[in-house]
Each structure stands twice: as C-alpha cells, then as structure tokens.
Amino acid sequence: MKFNIITIFPKIISDYCDETILNRAQKNNLININPINLRDFTEDNHKTVDDTPYGGGAGMVMKPEPIYKALKSLDAIPFRKDDALSKLKKIFSSDIKKKKRTVLLSPRGRQFDQRVAEQWSKLDEITFVCGRYEGIDQRVVDHMVDEEISIGSYVLAGGELGALVMIEAVSRLLPGVLGNERSLLEETFNKGIRNKEKGINEVEVEYAQYTKPADFKGWKVPDVLLSGNHAEIKKWRQQKQN
Predict the structure, then answer these.
(1) Is residue 69 part of a domain?
(2) Beta partners for 6?
(3) What is the pTM of this model?
C-alpha cells in the first residue's frame, strides 16, 4: 500500500516513518511512504506556497497551484462527473482499477476513527494533503480532493501529525505489518467494530496487562495470572472487560 504525503515539512514525515513498525513495514515492502515537498512544485525563487486572502483577514492561505501540480504528478486528482477531461482519462487509463483516495487534513473534516481505518486498509493508495498557515484555498477542497478528514476537535499547526496518525492506524491493519496478528483481534476498537457488526452497541475495554517482576514496590500481579490455570485466567480477563 502506498501513502503519499504532500507537505512543506517532508522531514517530519520521513523521520517518524524511519522508526517503529512503519520502518519495518517499508523494509518488508508491505507499505510505501512517500513524502512530497510541496515547495518543489512552485515556480518562483522563494518557493512560495501561500498568499494573502482575498477579501482581507488575518494570516496567509495556501495557494492552489502548487497543490494541483503535486497532485497531478501523483495522478491523485479525483475523477469529477462534470470534468470531461477527467472522464476521458479514467476511460483510457491503465490505472483505472487502482483503488485510490485523496484526503485533505482539516479540522472541519469527517472524524477519523477505527472504522475509517478499516475502510482505508482496503485501498491501494492514499494521498494526504497537509495544510499550514491560516487555511487552504477552497478550490483545493472543491476540485482536488475526495474528502476532508480530521483527527479530533482541536486545531494543530499543520496536517503532518494527523497524516502520521492515520498512516500508522491504517498500516497496522495490513497483513504482515504487525509481528503478532492476534494482537489486532484483541484491541479495544477492533472489538468495538466487530460488536457493532453483531448488533452489540458497546466497546469492550481491554483487560489489564502485567509483566515481570511479580512484585514491584509491594504492587503485586494478581495471583490468578501466576497460577498457570488458563481457564481461570481467561475468566478473570473477561470479567475485567465488563
């Protein structure tokens, strides 16, 4: 699976993705994380990606031209029913069957959650557009992306952290990315999705976990976990989830 991230700070992306499970997944050719420097798609000497807003107002707004060029270089501008050229391109493109999505990180977007991560894990390629400054030209929203997505009801300085959150959440759902696939089955929000599919409107809470030493500063591991009785351990864990 391929992740493209359009940003003016590509090092933020590459530094994080060169560590943790994302690094291992890339080395194993399970995912491809591709930071794109938006300034490479500017034409002036200052590599300008923002300008003052029409109508006045505080702050600067990200320009549409560099974003358009970056998306076009990735063939990531979504098909629009009213765009004849896009329609022809879709008809004759050898890439027609590829499942792709282009997403703008935005605090006003749809809330990202585990269900969205599950849906996106079925795709072949996701392109994230990371905003900065006061905002982004509305024509990017209207004509260049599939949707706006938010990771929470708060404002960050840019979309890079949100993109990393979503890349990790989606990647760990892909076969082979996690060292122990069973851990996915036991995670809180994956269980919540399965419960909803069964008509159960609740999220199971993960049971408490302990490791060595059995006694640390007088804080002891529950005796049942040291008993070796797997039936009783399973019963104890089920009780802790309720």
Answers:
(1) yes
(2) 36, 129
(3) 0.83
